[in-house]
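Hey team,

Filing this mostly as a record. A colleague (T.K.) asked me to run one chain through the structure pipeline before their review meeting, and I want the input and output archived in the tracker in case anyone asks later how it was produced. No errors, nothing strange. Just documentation.

Input sequence:
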Amino acid sequence: MTDIALYDSILDLPVPVIADHLGGALGRSKLSPEFHESPLSQPGFSSLTSLAKHGRAIVKISGLYRCSKDSASTYSDMKPIIESLAREIPYQLVWGSDWPHTGDGAARLKNPDINVKEGFRSIDNLGILQNLRDWVGSEEVWEKLMRDNPARFYR
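Output structure:
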């Protein structure tokens, strides 16, 4: 039994899918309280990891500001998620800057006028990359994430 409704369909696809923004995995700051102590048990995470292990999903580490509210620490509540992915599926990870850093669309919901422009977010990209470098745990995984895997996936 899996916790992603499309799991079997994705498993049967002839090509892998790219799961942007960590496949929707959330940091503690965005999780409901029952998952604060165990963010790896959040719905969908084990299925995402399983799909990647089967070569059916490529997980893009991007848009951490979409997965976490913890901007003051450059999204440090994402550490257990990224550490787990780096340990479990290092061959299926890629990095994406998610630039330009758009808003969350909340303003658009309040005012659907297409002439009203939503501002961009100010993101500490260097801080995020420094954390990410530490969280992946080794130079080998870092090189896979930043060079080897993208070269293989996007050839």
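Quick notes for T.K.: Residues 139-153 form the longest helix (15 residues). The first strand starts at residue 17 and ends at 19.
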